[in-house]
Amino acid sequence: MRTLTTDPIPFEWSTSATPTATTQQLALALARHDVDELEAWNAELWSAVTELSLAAGRPWSFDRDEPTIALLRAAAVLAGRHPDVSGTSAAVLVAALGG
């Protein structure tokens, strides 16, 4: 017969941790590529910037620049002002960019 207990679990029982990347890691990965190359990653970059902006409590919006330029500018501002904010979308993009 099994007994129930309310004692804490003495080990890490989760199967895997969700990878995250900080705004600083994202900025460094983006800096290794030309703007022309990054245009192919607009959807992923939009997702990462939006997620990180929400986590930092800093809204962002497009301006008159091209979408890629606006996203890169937002990522740079986040990295400068909130370098430790992290997100899973950023981790996916950093991994895809080889960084």
Description:
The chain has a two-stranded antiparallel sheet. The model has no long low-confidence stretch (mean pLDDT 88). The radius of gyration is 18 Å and the shape is elongated. Helix 1 packs across helix 4 (67-81) and helix 1 (23-31) runs parallel beside helix 5 (88-96). It has helices at 23-31, 35-38, 42-56, 67-81, 88-96; strands at residues 21-22, 86-87. The protein is mainly α and 99 residues long.
Our estimate of the beta-strand percent is under 5%
The secondary-structure element order is EHHHHEH
Query: Span between N and C termini?
Result: 52 Å
Number of alpha- plus pi-helical segments: 5
**Fraction in helix:** 40-55%
Principal-axis shape equals elongated
Strand order in the largest sheet: 1-2
Low-confidence stretches: none
Round the Cα radius of gyration to an integer and report it.
18 Å
